[in-house]
Amino acid sequence: MSDWTQKLPEAAQEYIAGRRLDEVECLVSDLAGVAKGKAMPASKFGKQKYFHLPNSIFAQTITGDYADMPDESEFTEPDMILTPDFSTATAVPWTADITIQVIHDVNDQQGNPVPMAPRNVLKRVVKLFNDQDWKPIVAPEMEFFLVARNVDPNMPVIPPMGRSGRRAAAKQAYSMSAVDEYGKVIDDIYDFAEAQGFEIDGIVQEGGAGQVELNLSHGDPIDLADEVFFFKRLLREAALRHDCFATFMAKPIEGEPGSAMHIHSSVVDHKTGKSIFSDAKGGETEAFLHFIAGMQNYLPAVVALMAPYVNSYRRYVPDFAAPINLEWGRDNRTTGLRVPISEPAARRIENRLPGMDCNPYLGIAATLVCGYLGLTEKKLPRPEVTGNAYIDSDELPTNLGDALDLFSDCAPLREVLTPEFCDIYEAVKRNEYKEFLQVISPWEREYLLLNV
């Protein structure tokens, strides 16, 4: 092995052991969470310490267009410096050649972190905790649909065909036989994850037709965001091997529940190694309540990060186990902020608002920044809700335009996340929203064409 391969994590070294490494994929996440970068021969990768990409990749919309920049006269599309973070290196087990992928750090030409890069946004939020001798811990839950191949956007998305020869059925939550219907896809998911060194905490059938939930073990926020970023690629590739798609749309199928990325959060004291959410007797601390209060006060302003597309808001409907409120409660899935049953050392808060369509770096950053502001402001939350929290709640924005207005107007968040990031994110999302509003839907043609 050459010197640089010695820097790779154990799983990556095991993957290439005794074999010729052909290619390295050099990756960064754009605002949408799409992998951008370059692929190069391994021999060339080993001879260069960095490579360049223009900063315009963070101005690109999900349609491939470019947003209007806040100040076009100052935008010259300079190159950024991308250097490998070897701790992220992992196998690409679905390729024909022996390939690894590496997430890269993104800096400007003066060596400063590029503020628009989503991974840098999360790093900045984590540093806020670290500066207070706190260590945030997260555990994401990934919900997604396996669906039949959809090659015509004008046609509705439908469930995949199972091994029984029938399409996957809805309302089979936690059914093992439902998971067995597409067991070959699940087998490849496990095999790919093992090759990449990822630990899956569990896989279950969710309530939608072909809907699956995959849970990851708790850990460092940046590491877990990297894993979700990689997992989205992994899941798509596993599905394609078996003639179906894996989709992370928040609401891909009409009448079915949406897909969330619930985020469990806790905070550990660096000095003691113990949770700041539990006291010596195992009871809840004021810090625990402050964290909840911060989420209640600031989550509306970051909904635009957790629900980034027009489709995202189709998930926010009652009676589909979806969060449509900012209430909190213990073991209460009708609340947007749920406190799961746990031992005192594992006391945590589950944010049920983010959709699986959000960028994992930004969804986790949004969750943690609200909690951080709560810890610093030391306010108390509203009383716990012990009944059905779905009733009479209208605190959250119901469309992307309103969510962006709240995001733009929140000064504390702009200061923490940086105006540079907030401005470009808003510009990209305003552009996407404007493009959507130009599309005439089948519903409009069905009911308005001849009736109004």
UniProtKB/TrEMBL annotation:
Cofactor(s) required for function per UniProt: Mg(2+)
Top-rank taxon, per record: Bacteria
Entries under Pfam families matching the protein: Gln-synt_C (PF00120)
Record-annotated GS catalytic domain positions: 118-452
Keywords: Ligase, Magnesium
Entries under PANTHER family matching the protein: GAMMA-GLUTAMYLPUTRESCINE SYNTHETASE (PTHR43785), GS CATALYTIC DOMAIN-CONTAINING PROTEIN (PTHR43785:SF3)
Family: Belongs to the glutamine synthetase family.
Record-given protein name: Glutamine synthetase family protein
Origin species: Albidovulum salinarum
